[in-house]
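re: that chain from earlier
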Amino acid sequence: METLFVALRVLLSLGAVLALLWLLQRRFARGGVGSAAKARAANSPTVVGRQSVGSKANVVVIEHDGRRFLLGVTEHGVNVLHSSEIEPARGLDPDLFARELAEAEPADVALVTQSAAPSDTASASPLAGSILSGETWKQAAAVVRNRR
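^ sequence. v structure.
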């Protein structure tokens, strides 16, 4: 009989803890800590599309604050190639990235691909950037030394 009372007390305690956890989860999911993160996510830029134009260069279309930007991204920097207002009736279109890329100035896209070209003969080797390259290990060691 005493074992039955102990088992009931354990089940009742477990039920109370689970009910408290459920109430806390509902409270914070509704408007507590999570609402600030949702507001930040709504204001952050959205990546619409990305296309590689070289080994270390990309062309990216992002949306932010009602504007769409075509960016040239290399390992050395980010350049705005083109920007436009978002048309409300435009919606999501599968050929959107191709149209945004076609609207960009050809010289701007060529500039991005030229800046991605290797600048010295050491990085022009077939092993450049791979784990088998000695230069890659030297760069990794330099980064670790600089962080300490």
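The CA atoms of residues 52 and 138 lie 27 Å apart.
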